[in-house]
Amino acid sequence: MSGADTQVQSRRSGLTRRQKRALSRGVQYAVFIAAVAVLAATADWARLKNQFAQWDLVQQMFPDVITLALKNTVLYTMSGFVFGLVLGMIIALMRLSPVGPYRWLAGIYIEIFRGLPALLIFVFVGVAVPLAFPGTEIPGGTYGKVALALGLVSAAYMAETIRAGIQAVPKGQMEAARSLGFSHARAMVSIVVPQAFRIVIPPLTNELVLLFKDSSLVLFLGVTLEERELTKFGRDLASQTANSTPILVAGLCYLLVTVPLGFVVRRLEAKAGEATR
Known about the structure:
Distance between the termini: 35 Å
Order of helices and strands: HHHHHHHHHHHH
Largest sheet: none
Oligomer: single chain
Number of strands: 0
Shape: flat
């Protein structure tokens, strides 16, 4: 159908394309508002309030939910992120190495740890390692175990992200550095890798958000009262009180961190997009 025919049909209908799009959006908003209104009208708010909004339980959780549970969650996340970043950098360089066995080992590692659920990695670290190496203690106790488990999982994803960032740096950067007398290793460390990290900061920040949520799996390692993170803390109190308010509060504490981090990711992605224009 030609453009002239489309314009004729639009005129006959009495609406322009912009008006049709506005009408379509209006209908979608109306349907959404109607659905929310129906759900709000049919929900049993009294039972929801009784199960999820007991103010006395909320007061009972403070300040431990912040000074203990949230603090431990942040520590677990940061330790796993740092270990995963270092290991991921090594694996990414192995993946790009001209030495065949290095590339094969890195590829096998990435496929295995990217394919396994994080829960199985926690079970492996908490159960299989002590059985395989009797008498061997992972440095740092529970914090060391969590850093190892989260790091092993995140390193596989970070390695691919860093590798893509390195390959995104123009080859002329390496050639220019070599022409100035830099060795390959020094040019990689001083020129290529810093530029690659500027490219991959947004996805790495997104990985930090995912790790923050995955830290809830620490409960499968068996932690003491002082080592509990948000999910374990909320779950224990919910079991004691037979009420779900502590779980809701723990979820809100996760959002206190993940929502600002998500905003940071979007800002970094926007800046990266502007830099490439």
